[in-house]
Amino acid sequence: MNQPLELHLGLFPSQSWTAEIGLRIRRHLLLKVIGTTAFTWIFFIGYFHLLREPVHPVTVMPLTALDRLVPFQPQALIAYFSLWVYVGVAPGLQLTFKELVVYGLWVGALCLTGLGFFYLWPTQIPPMPTEATDFPGFAILQGVDAAGNACPSMHVAVAIFTAIWVEHILRGARAPMLLRLLNGLWFAAIVYSTLAVKQHVMLDALAGAVLGIAFAIPSLRWRPGRASRSQKRSGYHGMSLPAGRFDGRPRRG
Q1: How far is CA 94 from CA 88, 122, 158, in A?
Q2: Whole-prediction pTM value?
């Protein structure tokens, strides 16, 4: 007697998107938290060294018409500082140890490239009049992160790298569109905040976006498990046949 052929295809996952995202978050959680924190501190060591001791003459970035249109908004500092939470989202969603390591290598290469720009071509934003403000944290920002290391904006570069990766993971997990829109809005708020708190000018932001995209696109192409995922989408990977079958044809008994 012939039995019906059973196909379990990757096109029809048995788990919901919440189960997949939850699993991704739980995997190697402690390592993700410690690794992201350590990586951020290492980056800042190089960042502040080049900020305070540039080895070449510093170029002042020009203002554009859009820079003059964006007013000084100290409350945008909340979105500006939120980058340091946002950068942990993409590594926090990596599923395996190998994926996490490769992601770290790509974002590390992005940051090293940015520091290379700051070393070879130090830049700063021009003096811009800002209103006196007692908004919490603003005095710390002005005292620690001066107007140097302007172009490319690493705030924007890392934010767009993160946004592209998070969108890729959410789309693959079939997460609701609302969650994907929130990811885009968070990214947009960070980019806008760099202009609104007068830490960057428009040319800095554009250069940062180009730098981030230049690393995000190849990082999605060359990563662990990409080939197997492509096979799943094509319907050939993950096929299971019941006992007594070979190549989907019934075996006569």
Answers
A1: 11, 34, 17
A2: 0.81
Q: What is the pLDDT of residues 145-158, one digit of tens each?
A: 667 789 999 999 99
Q: What is the dihedral of CA 247, 249, 250, 251, to 10 degrees?
A: -60
Q: What's 148's DSSP letter?
A: B
- Four-point Cα dihedral 191, 197, 199, 202, nearest 10: 50
Distance of CA 188 to the CA centre of its chain: 13
In tens, the pLDDT along 4-34 reads 443 343 444 445 899 999 999 999 999 999 9
Q: Is 246 helix (H, G, I), strand (E, B) or coil?
A: strand
Is the pLDDT confidence value at 212 over 90?
Answer: yes
Give the separation between CA 13 and CA 134, rounded to whole angstroms. 52
Residue 217 CA to residue 237 CA, distance in Å, equals: 24
CB atoms within 10 A of CB 89: 17
Mean pLDDT confidence for 200-209: 96
The DSSP 8-state label assigned to residue 131 in this structure reads -
SS3 at position 124:
strand
Alpha helices in the chain (DSSP H): 17-26, 29-52, 65-69, 77-81, 83-86, 89-92, 97-120, 138-144, 154-172, 177-196, 202-221, 226-234
Q: Which of 208, 195, 51 is nearest to 114 (CA)?
A: 208
Residue pair 130/54 in contact (Cβ under 8 Å)? The answer is no
Helix-helix angle 154-172:202-221, to 10 degrees: 40
Give the closest residue to 204 by CA, choosing from 87, 60, 43, 106: 60
